[in-house]
Design a protein that fits this description.
heterodimer; A: 158 residues; alpha+beta; Alpha-Beta Plaits; 2 domains; 5 helices; B: 151 residues; 6 strands
């Protein structure tokens, strides 16, 4: 999808959130000189093309009680990355699953997934269980819980 | 920890993380689905924003399709330098979020730049400011999209 100057203006205008008013798209339009219908059309088009992945609530999981936030990293043989990544991605508790480059010798892990839970013990027990149920015993992994969070905001676009 | 969420708040959170109506009166349309009034929905969303349970109510963009750069970066910082480096890293507007994690690689942050070729430049600037190496780990493949919390 080719984005126009106007689209980028719209993208910047709504990135902090939609106005919480009766006619939010009309209000956005007024700020950037577009009519309501045009704003609706462009947002729909950007959503259809995947420029907007999702529109809606972006939660702060920590404030919702999900304080045990684990990044689980795996050192998967290259020829098994697809198989293991798809397996992990399909599990309910796993919210993100990416293949990333190793940084040898310091960092051998090439598959990253996130698990958000309410307690560390439960997250660890869940990981033990999935290692067994998914047959991942031979694949080295590490669990990195998050400690202090210093910054959380979306990316900013001009 | 009391979240002070009632059944309707939970329904709002569970329903509208995945999408939101795009029409003239979207809050009205969403409220109808939930069986509440538009004003009630708006007030509840505002309340959850005020309590910082929501980070925002709006779009999540696909950085690469916007022409932007995105990467996960990690650093190994000595305990005595952590606060200093943390301040230096967070001062970069391109750092979208930053978490401490319990591992030798103890600082993890996401870089979001307006164009992909800015990523190496910013990494270098962070290395120069901090005196520490930055490990760049951009995604090679994504297996699952969506970050959804049942509450």
């Amino acid at each position: 999808m080719v984005l126009s100057e106007q689209d980028y203006q719209l993208i910047a205008e709504i990135q902090g959130g939609l106005p919480l008013t009766s006619h939010p798209y009309a209000e956005i339009g007024e700020r950037i000189g577009l009519d309501e219908q045009r704003v609706i059309e462009r947002i729909e088009a950007m959503q259809a093309s995947g420029v907007i992945k999702r529109l809606g609530i972006v939660v702060r999981h920590h404030e919702l009680g999900y304080t045990a936030n684990a990044m689980v990293v795996w050192d998967v043989p290259d020829d098994r990355v697809d198989e293991v990544g798809e397996k992990l991605g399909a599990l309910d508790c796993i919210t993100l699953c990416y293949q990333r480059p190793r940084r040898l010798p310091d960092w051998p892990y090439n598959l990253f997934c996130m698990i958000h839970g309410q307690e560390r013990e439960k997250v660890l027990a869940y990981i033990d269980k999935l290692v067994n149920s998914e047959g991942l015993n031979t694949i080295p992994h590490k669990v990195l819980f998050s400690g202090r969070r210093f910054k959380q905001r979306g990316a900013r676009y001009q | 920890m009391s979240l002070e969420l009632d059944e309707i708040d939970r329904a709002i959170l569970n329903t509208y993380q995945g999408g939101f109506p795009i029409c003239e009166r979207p809050y009205q349309a969403a409220a109808e689905q939930l069986g509440i009034t538009e004003t009630d929905l708006i007030n509840r969303l505002q309340g959850m924003l005020d309590k910082k349970q929501l980070s925002r109510f709006g779009p999540m963009y696909h950085a690469e399709r916007l022409g932007g750069g995105l990467s996960l970066c990690a650093m190994r910082i000595a305990e005595e330098d952590y606060d200093r480096v943390n301040d230096q890293v967070n001062a970069f507007p391109e750092v979208a979020h930053n978490y401490a994690r319990d591992h030798a690689f103890n600082m993890w942050f996401v870089l979001a730049t307006e164009s992909p070729d800015r990523i190496p430049t910013v990494l270098q600037e962070i290395e120069q400011a901090s005196g520490y190496r930055v490990y760049n780990m951009p995604k090679k493949q994504e297996f699952f999209i969506g970050l959804k919390f049942e509450v």
